[in-house]
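## tool: complex_structure
## caller: assistant
## args:
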Amino acid sequence: MKSRWAGLIIPVAIVVVLALMPTFVNNYWLRIATGALMWAGLACSWNMLGGYAGYINFGQSAFFGLGAYTTALLMGDPINLPFFVTIPAGIAVTAICAVVVGGPTLRLRGAYFAIATWAFAEALTQFANVMNFTGGIGGLNLPPFLNERFFYYTMVGAAVLTYLITWALFEHSRFGLKVKALRDHEAAAEAMGINTSLVKLQTFVLSAVTASVFGAIFAYWVTFINPKSVFGGDITDQMVVMVLLGGLGSLRGPAIGGVGLFVINRLIWMHWGDTAFYIAILGAAIVLVVLFLPDGIAGLFTRRSTKSGTVLDKAVGKLVGGGEGGRG
Amino acid sequence: MPESGFASILSNKQSEPKNGEQLDLFLQTLINGLLIGGVIATFTIGFQLTFGVLHVIDFAVGGWVVLGGYLAYYISALLKLDGFLAIPVAFLLFGAIGYLIGPILYNVRNSRTARPELMALALTFGLFTLLRGGMLTAWGFNTHSVPTALSGESLTIGPVTVPMIRVAAAVFAIVIAGGLFLFLYRTRYGLAIRATAENRQNAALMGVNIRRLSANVYGLYAGITAMAGVLMAAIFSVNPEVGLRYTLFAFFVAVLAGLGSVGGALVAALMLGTIEAFVSTYVGSSYSLLAIFATLFLVLLVSPRGILKRGL
Amino acid sequence: MASTSSPQSGSAPENRASDAILAVRDLYRHFGGIKAANGVTLEVGRREIAGLIGPNGSGKSTLFSLVAGTVKPDSGQISFDGHEIAGMNAHRIARLGLARTFQIPAMFDNMTVTENLLAAAAQGHWHGAKERAAETLALLKLEPVAENRASDLSGGQQKLLEFGRVVMRQASLILLDEVTAGVHPNIRKIILEAIARLRERGISFLIIEHDMEMVRNVCDRIIVMDAGRVVTSGAFEDIVRNSEVMQTYLGRPQ
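## result:
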């Protein structure tokens, strides 16, 4: 059913559409496209650790914010560095923080890591709120650069690069095998000679650094950031929903979920403005996906095995059945 | 984020320290902190039990606290009744809801599909987000206070003056926690719960129906947490955003005590209340959250399995 | 690569093999009041297949975890292929050439059977891994399910797959924990043939097994454990002749 050409046609079509997008649409929709690409990239970054390594990070916004604040501080007075120089700086800051956070906690069970990342993000938010050099609650301004096409193409580059890195590293390399092995059975992975602590840390740093790059672009794009807009927990919430909705641990799922949910977000925003209702929708989406669609949208299209039955069968069985039966 | 008044009340109550009153202020802060710590202890003990039995950290813990607070608010505002009357209602209502949610959580945690631990974590996170968003949508960002017969009264012992409401809340908390401990240590069912929290395989071998036990424990925990929410709302006030704080408190205690440790939770909760009171009084209330997050974070880095070793 | 284990004044001289690949000395590990390892001393020789038997709870699986590095010993020495490995991380021990299976099959559930095999070779043995994975699939007759997820396999197939991962490790010592327990006779036959073939390649085995028939057919030597200690060891026939041991440890229905 699936020919070799089909596998090539879709990516090429996507690249062509992405490249020509600015000639089709006005600036308003170009901004939405830019945002959709950013969220797709962020969802992919979260999925690297959450989906492939099986560690839930509830503080990914910390790294997004670190990238944003590093760029804002370095581009603003008195340093005034050019934009592209600030990105590696943000990467360095983020990598150091990720090692400090992940080093001790990734050795433990996932619950501690989830708490640690969450606490780290919240602590950074509070820190940025009370410090002077971060501008406090008021935040920071960046030198405005009002070229929508520049930001669109920068975001295309970052998102496509993120996707390709995920494809190459997690789906087509030894490294990906190690990561997935430790996700599924850590003790067995250790018994295969895999240094699980190191591989987890590498994955976490990569995931964090990716988010920081999007944070840097975001800061320059919107020209104004504050603790809530770049460190806020809602940013992480949204990434989690996008990945779960799209399909945890799949390649395409997070990208699909990211674009889809962001467009829905904008449509809601257009009709009702900034509403708390969206938070409730996010929460309901997480609950429903966990209960009824554990493999996400991507799982609907790939029947990975014959025995498991359809997603719906599984979900119904899970709610009704006891779940304590032995393995066949 | 609207200021919950959590810490500001503490600092408002105190007048500027005059010469020679340093010790009084210190004592007052300490006692206030311990009283709040007692209330925090009630729901963190439940949180620890839930982790022990279900192996899930419940992000929704703050949501249950806030729901209890809103119940108290509506009982006092609409029915013109004393806020404390909400305590038994909160236990029954949210206990029942928790009893219904427990098995779902258990099924997700023990499902044979991919990554059950992650999925269960995501589920409680989603539940927390749903509760927060739902409450914001339904009730808005406004902060409500819950009047009780004791509001405004205060108790003076020597140089120390503490609000009566805090003393009453701490007494309720001791009764709740004491009842829970008696149940855990003096009944057969409590023994089954503790055995399960210690070792699920052994408990299963001993014939404990862990699925039903999980439902009961989650119900018990949700009920107790909502009762604590009534107390917290009576002391401070309630709005949907404060749930985040209470989730943080539960995590803080869990990390200090070691996840699943019930005995350590009591000590850690008292420590938390004290730290929060001292930072608010001596540094400033805007730093209290930062201090708690930073302490939590440092403990995770230095001694990730908890600094108070296993109790239970 | 020669063994550096020197003769020691062990309490049980018959535990010593002449040229040991694994030498455990006075190993202790207590869990609370449970003495899971209470002074274990034993050796496994090169190219030897040693069987480890004893009643449930006698500390066999704990010994595996101690040797493989999953559990750290309280005290004692473990020498493997000339390296002192007591307290070393599991992945470092694995890299020295030790492979193990788990009592409950430890599948990489969400990966395919082929990926499970490749993952075993991802650290250190990557060259030619794809060809060896294909060979292993053929050897263990897992080709029909090569692209199925590991979680969808039957219990017996999971045991096979776990054994296959151990084969992919190209280890010098393999620890097998009840690898044929409860599996279909056909699958057992496949595993036994594979063990024989690996031994021809010079690989040593330490096998936990309850099935006396299998122990008799496969093992060169038997080590009997009880209450966290090695009680005795020797040839199967000698152990069987010792009626006391038989009564206490082996006489129970399987």
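## assistant note: Residues 304-328 of chain A have pLDDT under 50 and may be disordered. Chain A touches chain B through 61 residues (CB under 8 Å). Handing back to user.
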